[in-house]
Amino acid sequence: SNTELMNTDPFEAARAAADFIAAETGVESHDVALVLGSGWAEAADLIGETTATLNASEVPGFHQPSVVGHVGTIRSVLTKEGKRALVLGARTHYYEGKGVRSVVHGVRTAAAAGCKTLVLTNGCGGLNEEWTPGTPVLISDHINLTATSPLEGATFVDLTDLYSSRVRQLAREVDPSLQEGVYAQFSGPHYETPAEVQYAKRIGADLVGMSTALEAIAGRHAGMEVFGISLVTNLAAGISPVPLSHAEVLEAGQAAGKRISTLLAEIIAK
Ligand SMILES: Nc1nc2[nH]c(I)nc2c(=O)[nH]1
Questions:
Q1: How high is the pLDDT of residue 258?
Q2: Model pTM?
Q3: What angle is formed at CA 222 by the lines to CA 219 and CA 225, rounded to 5 degrees?
Q4: Is residue 38 within 8 Å of 136, Cβ to Cβ?
Q5: What DSSP string runs through 94-111?
Q6: For strand 84-88 and strand 32-35, is the pairing parallel, antiparallel, or unpaired?
Q7: Is 225 annotated in the active site?
Q8: Is residue 236 in contact with ligand 1, taking CB distance under 6 Å?
């Protein structure tokens, strides 16, 4: 079974998933992988024409997302430039307790499917009060506060320029006003306390979230060029006087959807 395969050899599990996707979509090899986070759901429709849609639960090793508002599909999208994009709308978060191998299965599957570029998007909390909800921020680097790694054994991988400065430059050509920030991944599922947000700020983070860093490490290990972009959907706890509300988070994501998805489509087209 896929669970056994994931437990014995996660790379075999990714190979099986990639073969399944190639067979089901009729696309032998994909070029760019897109992981959609909160607020980014519209991006797939704007980057090209969806030629196949699979339910995540039917693809080996993937789970139907347990997070409300997250789509559970994997789509093959043909861009106007003829690029094949694999859109992973079924992210597994570390806080779901399914293990770090499950968190990075989609990334490994994308690499096994042929992708050379990995685009990671997410919704996050902002530590800079000028970044109001709905602000997209390029990820320049990350701080992994999960106390874990997707890599096992003596897999010493360099993470210099993990968030490709080349692609960040392309993004700035699309929108010169784009800001950059360091993203800190907390394990979650609770939000940070105000004291933890100040700690994150003090150690150099500009954004706090519960995804992305572990996926980026696995993406680099798999040989892909990684690019990350966050959507600030709320000010992190304590940055603004009012408490967080998940409803506000979701609503801010929806409001910014069109603008950031267009931005992403233009970056991918480059
Ligand atoms: N850790 C963390 N994750 C988040 N995801 C979203 I959307 N907002 C936040 C936040 O404020 N903190």
A1: 78
A2: 0.94
A3: 55
A4: no
A5: GGG-S-HHHHTHHHHHHH
A6: parallel
A7: no
A8: yes
